[in-house]
Structure formats: C-alpha cells, structure tokens
C-alpha cells in the first residue's frame, strides 16, 4: 500500500508553501518528515488527506491518483492532526464510536477494536472517562487509537507530540514504532524534534517548502559528512539545534 | 460502501449531536425560555395593542398568545438552525470538522445526516414548548399536534439548511454576531410570526412586500395552518423550494470545504 508524491506545489495567495516536492513513503516503516515550524508539513498533510485540493503535482496511492479514489484513500488513512480533534465533552468511547460510525463501523465493532487498541496504548481503564479529564499525552494516545480504529494501512501523524513533556513524547513514539513493527503499518511522522528519529528511519527533510533530503537518517549524516542528524539538519537548513527542541 | 455503513453514520451523527445537546443543558433551557418570555410577558403587554381579527386558519377571534404560538415554534427552529451553524463554525475552528471530512462517505450524505440531527433536536424542543403552552392556556387542537409535524420537519430542514449554508460562508466564530443581526432578527421580525401581514401593510406597503417575500413568513404560515389541520399550499411550495435551494447551496459550500485553515 504505497503513497507517492510527485512534483507537489502549493501556494497560499502569493506565498509558496510547497515547491516541487516529490517522494515515496517506505512501506511498513516509520517515515520521518523533519522540518522546522512553517516548513510546509501541515500543508503537505492537508494535501495528503484531501482537506486541501491539489494545485499542482499529484499524489498516488498504489500508482493511482488519489483524486480518482478518494473513498479508498480515506479508508486506508489514519490521521492524527497537529491540533486535537477530540470532542472534549464526550467520553473516550463516545469519541471512538463517532469516528467508527463515520467509517461504517458498528458500535460492537468499535468496542471490540477500541478495547484492544486502548489496552495496547495503556489506556484500557479509561474507556468511559471524559476526554476533558485526560492529560495531553493520554489525549494524543486516544487520537492514535481513533486513527487506527478502522484498520488503516497508512498512519499520518502531524506533530503528534507537540506540547507534550519528554516522557509522554517518548512513550507515544515508542507506541507508534511498536504498531509499525507489529502491524506492518506505514507511518508518516511529522516532527521538528530530531530526538524522535532513529538512525535507520527513512527521513524527509522539508524546509521552506522544499524537500532537501530523502534518505535513511544515517545516510543523510553520511552525505552531509556529519556525525549526528542534528548537525546534518543544521547544515541543510542553516537552523540551530534550538529550533529542534520544544 | 455498504448501505449499512450509511445508516451507521446517520446513527453515529445523531448520537453525537444528541450527546452534545444534553451536555449543553443551558442551550435547551434558553431554547424554551426565549419563546416563553414572548408568550407570557410580551404577549401580555401587547395583547391589547395588537388585536387580531378573524383570519384564516382561525374561525373565530383568538387571543394574541394563540396567534403567536406558531411563530414562536418557528422561532425555536430558527434559533436552532442558526445554533447548528454556530456549532459547525466552532467545529471548523476547533478542528473537529476534519474528523467528519475524513469519512469515506459522500459529503452529501454527511450533510444530510447533520440536517436530520438538527431537525430532530429542534422538534423535541418545539413539542416541549407547545406542552408548556398548555400550562398558560394556549391550547391548539390536539389533532393539530400530529398534523403540524410534517410542517415542523420541513421548516426545521429549511432553517437547518440555511444555517449550514451560512456556516460554509462564515470563517470565524466572532462573525457569528453578524448572523444574529443580519439574519435571525430581520428574518423573525419581518415575518408574520408576531403580527399578521395585513397589520404590516397598514403601516408600510414596502415593508409588507419584504415580509411577504421572506421564506420564514411562509414557514410560519405553513406551521400555523397545519396546527389547525389545514394546508397552505403556497406556503408549502415556498418552504419546500427554499429548503431545496439552501440544501444545494449548503452542499456546494460543504463540498468545497477546506477544513484546514491557512497555516
């Protein structure tokens, strides 16, 4: 189940947000999309999820443009947006049931699937708790569970750990890696935090709307002749480490 | 997708709207208090000043409270329709609209589900209000409570569609105050909800024509006649036509919806 982006361009009025971006996600891996704030990551996500219409270029799912298979794309994608999209007044289960219903899953299917997912994300005992009563890290985990509810093959996470403390960030990162490994899930993990990327992760470096690197993390270091990805990133973008740590 | 998927989505959207509604108890109370104030306080004050002659569908002289009851029922539907508009704008601002737009089901269906949810919630409030009306001796015929149902459903759909159309045009929550001033109040006051149109004609011919063209006037008349087990065909046609036009406009707005705002 492959996603390929070809020559993608997008502009807001006169401001170019994405310029000639092309890449292909590595199936069954956590693909990191690394870029500072304002690099164009969220715009790219909005295009991948069809929340924005394409202006130029194309996005292919299994070699077929997504514009021709919108429903199939939405069945195959699980998305965690940068901004929380949970309904705070509803419980964890009610949020999941709503999402499930929009994907044609019955309440029984949702309950069955939700229990397993939440158990795995260490939230098994919070099924009936109100979202408002959960902390930021737990809310993110609920969003991940929700994104996986309809059994997608591709998971898109747009800065899913933003605003969380280090422990919560590491925990979510670990959970997603486990899911990726166990379920052969293809993940696109947008981040501006280098610490969330492993040396053998496929990495896309996006800066000022352009794709500056598309290789494994250690290969990027090798190409830039640096010892760390942080140094390579600094060399590519001209940005200091301080931009990488929240 | 399977047909059951469509029905599951309908059930899911209805359930969510219902749960949100019961979490906002003040919304339910204010939906009842507003028309009750008109029925009990305003009507008491203006009863003498605004005498109503015998006009169809009434066969005898009626109290002013009896006259304004259908208009106040439509007022509940109007405010609910606009409330739905507000909640859609809120959903867009808060990001939860993305959850809806990521559904593989057609947007037309999702919009239809929203409209049905808005209509059902509105109907529950209208019947609660009519029930309260009995306590203050405003008693429409009991059979009318049944015959008015289709008229209320159609009116709720029309106002829900107008609300959803507006929500596709309003970009920010703050702009909702404009909806109150430019949509709700003119629509309500320039209608036959509070005074018959011949009264309006006595004071101003052009105002009378504006009121006659207002679709809300026709919705009120449709409900008024249905409450007395009669059909006002002209009102039915105008209300149906307006519902269709705004449903299409809402659908067009919803289809071109880009849930993520410029970053």
Automatic annotation (TrEMBL), chain A:
Pfam families: ABC_tran. InterPro entries: AAA+_ATPase (IPR003593), ABC_transporter-like_ATP-bd (IPR003439), ABC_transprt_ATP-bd_su_PQQ (IPR022467), P-loop_NTPase (IPR027417). The keyword Nucleotide-binding applies. Signal peptide: none annotated. SMART domains: AAA. SUPFAM superfamilies: P-loop containing nucleoside triphosphate hydrolases. Keywords: ATP-binding, Nucleotide-binding. One of its GO terms (molecular function) is ATP binding. The keyword Nucleotide-binding applies. Residues 3-233 form the ABC transporter domain. This is ABC-2 type transport system ATP-binding protein. It comes from Marinobacterium sediminicola.
From TrEMBL, chain B:
It is found in: Cell inner membrane; Membrane. NCBIfam families: phenyl_ABC_PedC. It is a multi-pass membrane protein. Belongs to the ABC-2 integral membrane protein family. The lineage of its organism: Bacteria, Pseudomonadati, Pseudomonadota, Gammaproteobacteria, Oceanospirillales. The keyword Cytoplasm does not apply. The chain crosses the membrane at residues 67-90, 111-136, 142-166, 178-198, 235-254. It comes from Marinobacterium sediminicola. Residues 26-257 form the ABC transmembrane type-2 domain. Its main location: membrane. PROSITE patterns: ABC_TM2. Keywords: Cell membrane, Membrane, Transmembrane, Transmembrane helix, Transport. This is Transport permease protein.
């Amino acid at each position: 189940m492959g996603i390929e982006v070809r020559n993608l361009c997008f502009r807001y009025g006169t401001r170019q947000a994405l310029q000639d971006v092309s890449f292909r996600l590595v199936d069954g891996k956590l693909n990191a999309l690394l870029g500072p704030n304002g690099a164009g990551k969220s715009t790219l996500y909005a295009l991948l999820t069809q929340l924005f219409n394409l202006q130029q270029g194309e996005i292919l799912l299994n070699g077929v443009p997504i514009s021709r298979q919108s429903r199939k794309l939405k069945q195959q994608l699980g998305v965690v947006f940068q901004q929380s999209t949970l309904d705070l007044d509803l419980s964890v289960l009610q949020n999941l049931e709503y999402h499930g219903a929009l994907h044609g899953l019955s309440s029984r299917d949702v309950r069955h699937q939700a229990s397993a997912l939440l158990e795995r994300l260490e939230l098994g005992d919070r099924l009936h708790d109100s979202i408002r009563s959960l902390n930021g890290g737990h809310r993110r985990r609920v969003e991940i569970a929700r994104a996986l509810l309809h059994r997608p093959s591709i998971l898109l996470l747009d800065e899913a750990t933003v605003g969380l403390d280090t422990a919560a960030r590491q925990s979510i990162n670990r959970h997603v890696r486990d899911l990726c490994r166990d379920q052969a899930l293809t993940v696109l993990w947008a981040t501006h935090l280098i610490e969330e990327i492993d040396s053998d992760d496929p990495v896309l470096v996006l800066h000022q709307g352009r794709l500056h690197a598309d290789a494994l993390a250690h290969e990027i270091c090798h190409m830039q002749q640096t010892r760390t990805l942080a140094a390579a990133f600094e060399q590519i973008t001209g940005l200091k480490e301080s931009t990488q740590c929240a | 997708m399977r047909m059951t998927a469509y029905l599951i989505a309908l059930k899911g959207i209805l359930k969510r709207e219902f749960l949100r509604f019961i979490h906002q108890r003040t919304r339910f109370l204010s939906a009842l208090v507003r028309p009750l104030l008109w029925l009990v306080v305003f009507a008491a004050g203006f009863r003498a000043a605004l005498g109503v002659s015998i006009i169809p569908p009434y066969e005898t002289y009626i109290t002013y409270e009896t006259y304004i009851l259908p208009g106040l029922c439509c007022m509940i539907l109007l405010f609910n329709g606009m409330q739905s508009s507000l909640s859609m704008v809120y959903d867009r601002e808060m990001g939860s609209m993305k959850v809806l737009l990521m559904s593989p089901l057609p947007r037309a269906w999702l919009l239809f589900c929203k409209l049905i949810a808005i209509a059902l919630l509105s109907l529950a409030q209208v019947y609660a209000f009519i029930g309260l009306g009995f306590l203050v001796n405003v008693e429409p015929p009991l059979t009318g409570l049944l015959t008015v149902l289709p008229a209320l459903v159609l009116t709720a759909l029309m106002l829900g569609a107008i609300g959803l159309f507006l929500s596709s045009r309003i970009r920010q929550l703050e702009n909702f105050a404009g909806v109150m001033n430019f949509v709700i109040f003119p629509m309500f006051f320039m209608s036959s909800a509070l005074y018959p149109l011949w009264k309006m004609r006595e004071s101003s011919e052009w105002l009378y024509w504006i009121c006659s063209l207002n679709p809300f006037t026709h919705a009120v008349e449709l409900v008024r006649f249905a409450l007395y087990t009669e059909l006002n065909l002209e009102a039915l046609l105008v209300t149906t036509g307006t519902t269709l036009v705004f449903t299409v406009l809402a659908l067009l707005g919803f289809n071109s919806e880009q849930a993520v705002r410029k970053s």
